[in-house]
Amino acid sequence: MYICLEGIDGSGKSTQILLLEEWLNKCGFEVMRVFEPTDSDIGRLIRKMLRDPDATGENFQKTLALLFAADRMVLMDEIEAAEQSGKIVISDRCFYSSIVYQNDPSWLYELNKFVKIPDMVILLDLDVETALKRCDGKDSFENKAFLEKIRERYLELARKNDFFVINANNGINKICEDIKKVISPKIGRCI
Ligand code: ADP
Ligand code: TYD
């Protein structure tokens, strides 16, 4: 099973993924945690480019979209191998991040047509102001207007697809309980 957590920067994905892993391990599942951008050479290049002051330019964004897709493609073998050995894969972001953060969805779907679609997508939804306060302006992407647009795109995507939308404006433990409630029925243990 391939589960993806999505949400704007600072929505609590990394925090919740660690708690989820702990819970799933207690339930007897082996877990592989992955994240995008990855720590591959391509992922490292992406992170460097994200710090560039021109990161919001249109052609820069297209270049990033290509790199994100390449970085993701490399990750797919790892995910497939983990799934085949019975592990639950929990991913911090997946191709839906490209759909909301980069432009031109039809091109992005084409670009990402060979990547695996997660079995479950959990969207941590949070107002932008709180998210920004939490992450303290880490990179050039983290500005209010931009993240407002991203949040709206996420919510629209969630309506069109079967995402589980979780209110991330709660305490860490409450959010974790809400996530467990949506995962439990899918894994058939730990209900
Ligand atoms: P993301 O991976 O989505 O960027 P993080 O999990 O790194 O988000 O969380 C961003 C910051 O907010 C971290 O400092 C984290 O400790 C804090 N945080 C996470 N969840 C909550 C929460 N529910 N309430 C308050 N602070 C939180
Ligand atoms: P990440 O390190 O997950 O940031 P955070 O922990 O703050 O959520 O991701 C880095 C940035 O990359 C983040 O702003 C979202 C962006 N991103 C894209 O623009 N497109 C993509 O396809 C992915 C996977 C991430």
TrEMBL record:
Top EC group: transferase
Enzyme nomenclature, EC number: 2.7.4.9
One GO MF term: ATP binding
Listed GO CC annotations: cytoplasm
InterPro entries in alphabetical order: P-loop_NTPase, Thymidylate_kin-like_dom, Thymidylate_kin_CS, Thymidylate_kinase
Binding-site residues, ATP: G7, I8, D9, G10, S11, G12, K13, S14
Domain Thymidylate kinase-like: residue ranges: 5-179
Highest taxon, organism lineage: Archaea
HAMAP family hit by this protein: Thymidylate_kinase
Name the record gives this protein: Probable thymidylate kinase
